[in-house]
Amino acid sequence: MKRKNSIGPFLLAVTSWLSCVSFGQPPVVKLPATAELAQQTAPRIQAELVKRAVEVVLDKFKDKGLKETDLSITLIDLRDPAHPVTASFRGNERIYPASVVKLFYLVAAQRLLQDKQIADTPELHRALKDMIVDSSNEATQYIVDVITQTTGGYELPAKEMAEWQYKRNAVNRYFSSLGYTNINVNQKTFCEDAYGREKVSRGPNGENGNKLTTEATARLLSEIVTHRAVTPERSDAMMSLLKRDYSGTSNDNDDQAHGFTALALNGIQDARLWSKAGWTSTTRHDAAYLELPDGSRFVLVTFTTDHANDREIIPTVARVVIEGMKNVK
């Protein structure tokens, strides 16, 4: 089952690395910085809205043992895209992101395509679609290979493994150059487990596993929505993959279009939803952008841990935010 501007930095990093291998030392790669998405300090009403969502969900699920430490939320109000307003609850906590990390690999691939650093092939587009629409882990593994120029396989000698890991960290270096902090995005996603060099890369105790914060995730999704991550055309291509049709019903509780944040849209006509969910046996997350008939436009990212089977936590948060945004002037 699936678990649920001119940069060219990735291959620049790889090329620089290749040029230094014979000298036995990794290069210091300085990637061009770009303007970060401007974010204002959250006004009181947005902050109070997130606080209210936390209070509601903690009270509703207290009998199931939901604690503050099981929850992270970030809200970005995008009604004025030039001046987004952010509010968070535990928004800078590092959490295993499950399939939400695929958002970062999607943007990485589009940057490389934009800079003509990787081949624009039908197979690449097939994998990007399957990675985001179906949350395919196999497609994600292929994308990670392409954007980092690494492949899995048998264990490597220590020196070769260090060189391999440096190349694999190209995605981290790219997002770090853009001011992203407190994240780790250098691992493939698997339905079961990793083996060989993929397992070694994670570290003996999984300490090098993927980690995201809701703030970093919300920022990236906001940059996709506002065409700041890549060109408008490529941003629109990503948005088409993230678009969810929440009408109708589904028998799959893990359907991205009918579960997660989408559940909060039941009974609301003419709303629009773009999202990427992630789920495992211990985590349940959603990163969503909503446009509502009342004019609300916002990104809402909710991560939950140790409550993977509680499918109403995320939509409960979303319902409070949807209702509260009506009062935000």
Characterize the structure shown.
- This protein has about 325 residues and is an alpha+beta fold.
- The chain has two domains: about 1-30 and about 95-210, no CATH class; about 40-95 and about 240-329, Beta-Lactamase (2-Layer Sandwich), CATH 3.30.450.
- The protein is about 40% helix and about 10% strand.
- The protein contains eleven helices and six strands.
- Strand 1 and strand 2 form a beta hairpin.
- Helix 2 runs antiparallel to helix 11, helix 3 (about 100-115) crosses helix 5 (about 135-150) and helix 4 (about 120-135) packs across helix 5 (about 135-150).
- The termini are far apart.
Present the secondary structure layout.
Blueprint: H1 9-20, H2 44-60, E1 71-77, E2 85-89, H3 102-114, H4 122-133, H5 137-148, H6 158-168, H7 170-177, H8 197-202, H9 214-225, H10 232-242, E3 243-244, E4 272-279, E5 283-291, E6 297-305, H11 313-325
Antiparallel strand pairs: 1-2, 1-6, 3-4, 4-5, 5-6
Helix pairs in contact: 1-7, 2-11, 3-5, 4-5
List keywords for this structure.
11 helices; 329 residues; Beta-Lactamase; six-stranded antiparallel sheet; 2 domains; single chain; disordered N terminus; alpha+beta
Strand fraction band?
A: 5-15%
Whole-number average pLDDT?
Answer: 89
Low-confidence stretches: 1-7, 13-42
Strand order of the largest sheet: 2-1-6-5-4-3
| Count of distinct strands | 6
Query: What structural class do helix, strand and pairing data support?
Result: alpha+beta
